[in-house]
Design a protein that fits this description.
Oligomer: heterodimer
Number of strands of chain A: 0
Order of helices and strands of chain A: HHHH
Shape of chain A: flat
Low-confidence stretches of chain A: 93-105
Helix content of chain A: over 70%
Mean pLDDT of chain A: 82
Structural class of chain A: mainly alpha
Order of helices and strands of chain B: HHHHHHHHHHHEHHEHEHEHEEH
Distance between the termini of chain B: 72 Å
Largest interface: A-B, 89 and 118 residues
Mean pLDDT of chain B: 86
Number of strands of chain B: 6
Strand order of the largest sheet of chain B: 3-2-1-4-5-6
Radius of gyration of chain B: 25 Å
Chain lengths: 105, 471
């Protein structure tokens, strides 16, 4: 039990550092897509929803599990698609010529 | 329908690969060139994790899951494809709320499993379940209120009522007390749990409703990190590493992003969340052309404004939320193209908090095919205002308010602003003399170099375009 908790906590703490490091150098121009993209990633809760919805339980649990799966999928699918739409607009306008986007100079 | 279950270790490897793809995806999202690819990688990681989960032997009934995924997929696709670019912030809020709701339900079902089995809830499980449910529920209802405020269903103003802070504090303290009690007894009690969940949902509403519409970007960013943390909490409950890693990644990055946004406004997060900022309205914003101090405001006609723009050498456009609301981004681009054809140097100055989300303005202008190289950050452009002939302010207000530099009593004191007042002339397109989201008078409007062009941003810009064409 405690061993499991320590493993979970280790992963949790390291993930905090990764999350911090990985985005600390984002230009302002990409803040909205980034927020939207990370928003889609926490849709991973869908995995948790599938696990609880797939267990052999009564109708009440079924209904709630179903709802969780629907909500999780909306988060995932909607999140990735809307992020892609935002980024598509940038992509079409950057033929090579890298710009120090929001780099501060 | 039965699928061959995968061995648990294979699933764990799939989760590991998915986690790596998320990290690389987020990394790539931070550079314009690779951003789209990063989003795609993260989506692939998600698909991998979902498929691996489907083949988990714990899952025995597929019907619910398949129908749920199909329904959610259709709703998600249709709303993501249909939403107008101006309405994106509230769409992200809704997607975020969905995730929060899912996390809250997952946590609650875990609790219910203990109750059904008649087992005592171990303290660690109790903490993770209750924390996941609390944060997920706040994120769900908070996001819905944020959506309502941005969509105009709920008033944008900060809603305040007597004893608001004590009531919120008591509610939150009560929720925490119930949580401690539930954890301490360990006895599963679905009735008390239901009350706890209801109170958490209510708290999400009360938490966001006193925050003004102008601060919604910060709120959405914060709720985004909340959902991440709620997801991580469900990972603790289910001992699922991909949930812990991905949820925490989002929790950490969302918190950092929230901090960056507050820093751009030079306001501590506590001020945004608990300041009931929008409530400090100096007036209801009448349309008189006189300020509270009785200072005169100079109007300018469309013809004069168009002439001034057409015969300048350098124009800096400062877009604000008013431009987004009026959907004037395409017209602005047209105006800029006309000016450029006449040899005018046109640049766009983007304040970090312009619009409703950081980067919102960039997205809107990109939609209107404004070349990415013409958009400049605050730091990049501020020295250029000294040489600019005209600063054209379209629907922006607080981000050009000189009070932020000088007036220590102003709520936005210290916020970095765009130095529009350094330009030789300032033309401000504005609907009325209404104060900005922050509800603060703007000295710039009374600057002798400033001329106001009143009207809907889109109308005004269209008229400018037509007039410039005739010159």
């Amino acid at each position: 039990m405690i061993e499991q908790l320590l493993t979970d906590l280790t992963i949790f703490i390291l993930a905090i550092f990764v999350g911090y490091e990985v985005i600390s150098k984002v230009p302002v121009i990409l803040h909205t897509p980034l927020m939207s993209g990370t928003n889609a990633i926490h849709g991973i809760v869908l995995v948790g929803a599938m696990l609880v919805a797939g267990m052999p339980e009564g109708p009440f649990v079924r209904v709630l599990g179903f709802l969780a799966v629907v909500l999780g999928t909306i988060n995932v699918v909607g999140g990735f698609l809307v992020t892609d739409r935002m980024l598509l607009m940038f992509a079409s306008k950057t033929p090579g010529a890298p710009k120090p986007a929001g780099g501060g100079k | 329908m039965t699928l061959p279950p995968l061995p648990p270790n294979v699933i764990r490897v799939a989760y590991l690969v998915a986690s790596i793809l998320f990290v690389i995806g987020i990394k790539q999202l931070s550079s314009p060139k690779s951003a789209r690819n990063g989003n795609l990688l993260a989506a692939v990681g998600m698909l991998l994790a979902v498929i691996a989960t489907l083949l988990d032997r714990q899952i025995v009934s597929y019907g619910t899951i398949v129908v749920g995924v199909l329904l959610g997929g259709i709703i998600g696709t249709v709303s993501a494809k249909r939403v107008a670019m101006t309405a994106m912030p509230q769409m992200v809020a809704l997607f975020n709320g969905s995730g929060g709701g899912a996390a809250a339900i997952v946590s609650s079902l875990e609790y219910l499993r203990f109750a059904r089995a008649g087992f005592a809830v171990p303290p660690v499980a109790g903490v993770t379940i209750l924390v996941g449910a609390l944060i997920g529920a706040i994120s769900l209802t908070g996001s819905i209120v944020a959506f309502g405020k941005l969509q105009g269903i709920v008033t944008e103003r900060a809603v305040t009522y007597p004893l608001q802070k004590p009531i919120n504090f008591l509610l939150f303290a009560g929720i925490l007390a119930v949580m401690v009690w539930l954890i301490a007894t360990g006895e599963p009690n679905p009735t008390v749990y239901a009350w706890f969940a209801g109170a958490a949902l209510l708290f999400g509403v009360l938490f966001v409703i006193p925050i003004g519409g102008g601060d919604m970007p910060v709120v959405i960013s914060l709720l985004n990190s909340f959902t991440g943390l709620a997801t991580a909490a469900t990972g603790f409950s289910l001992h699922n590493y991909v949930l812990i890693i991905s949820g925490t990644l989002v929790g950490a990055s969302g918190t950092l992003l929230t901090y960056l946004m507050c820093k751009a406004m030079n306001r501590p997060i506590t001020n945004v969340l608990f300041g009931a900022f929008g409530a400090i309205k100096t007036g209801t914003g009448g349309s008189t052309a006189q300020s509270a101090a009785g200072k005169p405001v100079r109007d300018i006609s469309v013809e004069d404004a168009a002439t001034m723009l057409a015969y300048s050498q350098s124009v800096i456009v400062i877009p604000g939320y008013g431009l987004a609301v009026a959907q004037a981004q395409h017209n602005v681009r047209e105006l800029a193209d006309l000016l450029k054809a006449r040899g005018v140097d046109v640049k766009y100055a983007i304040h970090p908090v312009a619009g409703r989300m950081p980067g919102h303005m960039n997205v809107l202008l990109a939609e209107a095919n404004v070349p990415y190289t013409e958009l400049y950050d605050l730091d990049q452009i501020n020295s250029d205002f000294d040489r600019a002939d005209v600063a054209l302010v379209i629907g922006a207000n607080d981000v050009v308010n000189p009070a932020a530099r000088t007036d220590t009593s102003s709520p936005i004191y210290g916020m970095p602003i765009l130095d529009a007042d350094h330009a030789k002339h300032i033309i401000i397109l504005k609907r009325s003399m209404r104060a900005g989201f922050a509800g603060i008078e703007n000295e710039l409007f009374y600057d002798p170099k400033t001329m106001m062009l009143f009207g809907d941003a889109k109308d005004s810009v269209t008229k400018l375009v037509n007039t410039v064409k005739t010159l």
